[in-house]
Amino acid sequence: MSVQAETAVLGACLLSGKAVIETLDTLTADMFQRDAHRTVFETVKALADAGDPVDTISVTRRLSTAGKLDHVGGPVALHDLADQAPAGMNVAYWCHLVADTSRRLRIGRTLDRARATLLETDDVDELVDELVADVTATEGRSAVVDQGSLSAAFEKRVTTGSPQAGLRGPWMQTDFFRLPDDGLTIVTGLPGSGKSTWLDCYLAGWLDKAEGNVAFFSPEMAPADNHLYHLSWTVMRADPRRYTDVAKATAEDLMARCWWIDDDRDSTPSGVLATARKLVRRNGVKVLVIDPYNNLEPDRANRGDRQDLYIQALLRRLRRFARNEQCAVIVVAHPRRTEKLPGTDDVYRVPSAGDISGGQEWWNAADLIVTVWRNQSGERPSDLGRPEDVTVRVSKCRFSKWGRTGSGKLTFSEAERRYR
Q: Cα dihedral sign for 355, 360, 361, 367?
């Protein structure tokens, strides 16, 4: 099965740029059991890292230049790989099989070595510690951060200030925090509280004053032209239908800065992140919005996972994407219905990350947690606020460079689709 999976993965890479991105995000060369397959993978990676196209012709040419073409079986072997690409190009499933087989074999070798030395070792505890470290290590990565990479990253941080201080919003009232520019932000709030609208307004203000573009995976606001319509309304401060010419120009400006990932094509985390990575590297995207997270369909390899384990793996993957690509990842997550405030008939308390399904995982993974809340019923407006009064609460801020926890007040104008 491992050889079949390796063949499927490499064949898909020769036919699809999306498969290349998914494969490089999941696998490393040492996960391939066949030496020829490792060589092909390394060639695919070298081409992709250089920004060159990856296909049968380019891989053949590069292998020939390096004197490795015969080693992999010649041009015929590469064409055979392409011919054996899986139907439907479900490369995430085959990548999972390659990684899973590699991990099982690595653990087996580790256990064999431990068994061979068990009766001879003078320190059983040390042997057990080494065994646990080897078994739990992430495939293809050392358990210790590479000193050379660490030194380079430190020099960049102290000389350029990277990472930056975050994405600044348009409102003084909520200027005590910024959205992390290389971290994971969770935006939550009760249905109808305006969290998606608040996020649109925040990003519209950021786009107006900063360089960088935004990618949306936003089934909540789908189709894309509907979201573009509301974004244009936010920028114009008026219904686009009233000012057609201005609306067209505004939409053109937004389409030069914003990209929409089609939720009708591939809504798995692998599919969305593969497309987002391409937009980051080729189109200057600095922000990825997923609204809401539960419209992501689990990858085939994760279907049937317990919900908490699926969420844990998903959030770790999103945070790793943010760090590796230096891209702000913002996830909108709906909470479960919370209880009503004491002494009210229809006012619900401000939800927190703990109210989202798998709450502890959201708290652990997030760099910033923002809750948008308003008194939707209008009950007791003198002390709970009017329906147009919005509370923005930050309950977690991992690093002081992004701000601090606290609350701010805004007022929403329905006519302008703007907060003040």
A: positive
Torsions phi, psi of 303, nearest 5?
A: -65, 135
Can you read off the two tokens belonging to residue 363?
């708290």
CA 19 to CA 27: how far, in whole Å?
12
pTM exceeds cut of 0.85: no
Nearest to 182 by CA among 320, 398, 290, 327: 327
Amino acid at 20: V
Q: Whole-angstrom Cα distance, residue 137 to residue 271?
A: 26
CATH 3.40.50.300: which residues of the chain? 160-419
CATH of 160-419, one of 3.40.350.10, 1.10.760.10, 3.40.50.720, 3.40.50.300: 3.40.50.300
User: What single-letter DSSP state applies at residue 157?
Assistant: H
| Residue 220 main-chain phi, psi, to 5 deg | -60, -35
Quick: pLDDT tens for 278-326. Answer: 888 888 999 999 998 888 888 766 677 777 788 888 898 899 889 888 8
Query: Does a cis peptide bond (omega within 30 degrees of 0) precede residue 292?
Result: yes
Distance CA 216, CA 259 (A): 6
> Which CATH code is given to the segment(s) 1-144?
1.10.860.10
What per-residue confidence (pLDDT) applies to 89? 64
Number of helices followed by number of strands (H, E) in the chain: 15, 9
- The arithmetic mean of pLDDT across residues 334-356, rounded, is 84
* Long-range contacts formed by 359-364: CB under 8 A, 24+ apart: 361/308, 361/311, 361/312, 361/315, 362/186, 362/311, 362/315, 362/333, 363/396, 364/315
Residues 6 or more apart in contact with residue 367 via CB below 8 angstroms = 180, 183, 184, 185, 319, 322, 396, 397, 398, 399, 402
In the chain, CATH 1.10.860.10 covers 1-144
Q: Is 349 left (phi over 0), alpha (psi -120 to 50) or beta?
A: beta
